Amino acid sequence: MRKSTTAPRGTIHRLSLTSRVLEGNLLGDPAEREVHVYVPAGFEGAGATRGLPLLVDIVGYTAGGPAHTNWRNFGENVPERLDRLIHSGAMPPVLVAFPDCFTRLGGNQYINSAAMGRWMDFLCDEMVPWLEQRFGCGGPGRRGLFGKSSGGYGALAHAFLRPDVWAAAASHSGDVGFDLCYLYDFPNVLRGLAKHELSPERFIRSFEQARKPDGKDTHLLMMLCMAATYDPDPGQFLGIRLPVDLRTCETIPERWAAWQAWDPLALAPRHADGGVKGLKALYIDCGDRDQYNLVYGARRLHRTLTTLGIAHRYEEFPDDHSGVDYRMDESLPFLAKALAG
User: Fold this and answer.
1) CATH number of 11-176+263-340
2) Going by C-beta distance under 8 Å and a sequence separation of 6 or more, which residues neighbour residue 169?
């Protein structure tokens, strides 16, 4: 049941792309990746999408891009939201890609990792050129990406590291302020691992064999995914090493420093002169009662970007981390208008 009964439906193309840079990744994940592509109503047919801006939806932990094109109860999936926003005139027509970047460790932060794979290279150097050749969309100055949570982190990381590719980015409740969103959680990680002799391998094999993993185990898996992302050790099982002593939970300075180097609070000043100031649009928001403490990191990032002279739009809203897709009504028009201009 669609929320808007008057907006004409766009078309979803269900495609697949075999990646060269993801082949042989340490997790053993497939290199062939499904990519759903939204084409707005009225732009079907040969050559019709030529010149449309390109947006890429990178999703949060435990999800894959194609999940955003599925039917959704009590609301809209992203294509239905796009139909409504475009039909109402709130945003110009865009082509939107939904890549499947799900991994054995339950998610993705969309950066290159010796354990997780070269996900930034996949998106920027393989998927984007492939889409643009196929649909005639995007091009320099007309590409953007958006995401929530882990996807919000990915949008920020790409904005700072690959402004040569992206001209706009939007982060909803993205992972910022690693000392508050990750470090505080390591006692819980060790308590969870203690049930498996403090072995990430034993825990993951148990998780993969479980008929019904519980939420606490999924959260523990997420923290191991972060370890394989920010400070991988290819010599360990799935590249996982933790930045704390497994017995005392004391921080290992050099290991934690490797994590902190990936915090957007560190990326922003390090790459402030690398092209990020040339972005056409940078959008950041967060709920003011985010249960993962991300609003405090978002406020710090807002202050840092302001100090660095990096133009951006920052908003807080009265909500937590969950069920906030409605915020796309703010970010998507903002990005699309900037890219279409």
Assistant:
1) 3.40.50.1820
2) 144, 145, 146, 155, 156, 158, 159, 279, 281, 282, 283, 335
